[in-house]
């Protein structure tokens, strides 16, 4: 793993654009290791007989309405364990059985890979990640969640425009996304797209856990729906690290290629001065999945 200390120019670029690409963060061998390990995670933890077959979509968020998975106990209780969310089209409408390989049917796995699976913990809690945080002068960086995103060929769906701060509320301190593609991420297989500089306008739409814990509700107005001409593609090689400001608008298109676009992603927030309130869908538990890096 590349030991990263950001240069003054890189820090300034991140502050200017709201995202930054760091190449060669993980070697190809480690990317392959994580891709193989996630198959073991599926084999050892996914039981289709007992799984509620929760789908993951983001369409309603663009309308300031919760998607179906956001209203389930399975989602609300997924912050401190290994949980599976499926693609639309993963199951046959006629038979109810998987319509493809289980390794392609899963949209994402979350949200405690950073504590529960050593190979992913090694990346998320690495000295390299800590040095990135130090370069950005993040005080008490705290890691609350992690995800493996599959974006399988021909099945991986769209992720609509959003700001990460809409989904994770820190009470005003900084939120940082770290996104590592384990395959080359190009336009045709669903690379990220950003609106540079859009982080200067704070999120005004927030997904809140309902008071009665029966799901989530969106509060506020969506300010992430800028025109397509403003977006810039972030095509990156596997093993790159993409830093994402919590307020920068980003999205991705469906994977229309014959290639996968797997990615490991996690979030950090500035713990000093933070107020991780009860409105967050993801709440700390006694399992210790909210990890303070230093």
What features would you highlight for this structure?
294 residues; alpha+beta; eight-stranded antiparallel sheet; four-stranded antiparallel sheet; 7 helices; globular
What does this 3D model show about the protein?
Helix content is 19%, strand content 23%. The strands form three sheets. Strands 1, 2, 3, 4, 6, 11, 13 and 14 form an eight-stranded antiparallel sheet that branches. The protein has helices spanning 8-17, 28-45, 73-76, 102-105, 113-116, 118-124, 127-135, and strands at 19-22, 82-86, 106-111, 141-149, 159-162, 175-181, 192-194, 205-209, 216-220, 232-234, 241-245, 250-252, 263-270, 291-292. The protein is built from seven helices and 14 strands. It is of the alpha+beta class and 294 residues long.
Briefly characterize the structure.
With 294 residues, the protein is an alpha+beta fold.
Instruction: Report the biggest beta sheet as strand number plus sense, adding barrel if it closes.
Output: 8 strands, antiparallel
Q: Strand share of the residues?
A: 15-25%
Count of beta strands: 14
User: Quick check: average pLDDT?
Assistant: 93
Helix residue percentage: 10-25%
Query: Compute the gyration radius: what is it?
Result: 18 Å
Shape call: globular
Q: What are the low-pLDDT stretches, counting only 5+ consecutive residues below 50?
A: none
Q: How many angstroms does the end-to-end distance come to?
A: 19 Å
- Structural class of the helix and strand makeup? alpha+beta
Q: Give the count of helical stretches.
A: 7
Instruction: Sketch the topology as an H/E string, one letter per element.
Output: HEHHEHEHHHEEEEEEEEEEE
